[in-house]
Amino acid sequence: MLIGANWKMNPRTFSEAKELCRGVSGSEGVDVVLFPPAVYLRQLAEAFPHILFGVQNVYWESEGAFTGEMSLGMAREAGAHYVLAGHSERRQHFGETDEMVSKKVAAALAKGFSVILAVGEATKGDDKSIVIESLKRSTQNVAETDMTRLTVAYEPIWAISTSENHEDATPEYAQEMIHTLKQEVAVGYIYGGSVSIDNVAGFLQQPDIEGALVGGASLKKDEFNEIISVARSLKK
Ligand code: PGA
Q1: Nearest-angstrom CA–CA distance, 131 and 119
Q2: Could you read off the pLDDT of 34-63 as tens digits, one per residue?
Q3: Which of 7, 84, 116, 161 to mutate to test the pocket of ligand 1 (most atoms within 8 A of CB)?
Q4: Ligand 1 neighbour 188 (Cβ under 6 A)
Q5: Pocket flag, ligand 1, residue 3 (CB < 6 Å)
């Protein structure tokens, strides 16, 4: 079971970030991975050595004239073991294409990171093939031997809590889509999109869902801990 906390560009201060980490409880049977803003990472990783950390984004080149970017080596040195790639906000706001995402995924896996690759359709009712094709393109450069460290987060954009007019997906809907995706790319799958203490059990009870990527609720210390407890009680 894997529970990821995608903090996005939150919280506003480093002291709040430390406070959130202080709240993360032990997690036998559940891999809890926090994705803080990269500028907080090194100090958090040093202060909380028992917590797994990741970066929300990375660049595939190892150094050079790429203003604003961060290499995998830098992420590793700062304390990251996981890389989140292809989140819909990176795709929507920063123009990331499947091709760029595939380079990030392949490079991170080749360097020994575990990767969470996010895919999902923009609008409810979009054809499944949109997600399938995006997933295939985003994983096209991945070496077969690296697949074991790849997890796909299925995140329908219309179900993400900050999307305009967002609507919760049902666990059955998520299960059906993930089941289809798994036949195309056989890796582990987690679900993301307004996961909260009220709905997490329903998602985690689905046969093909092995965890959750949590945004908004991961910024609420108590709720996030309760989500981890539910995951622990249902561990697969
Ligand atoms: P949400 O975000 O849980 O706030 O919907 C999930 C995500 O964007 O990864």
Answers
A1: 7
A2: 999 999 999 999 999 999 999 999 999 999
A3: 161
A4: no
A5: no
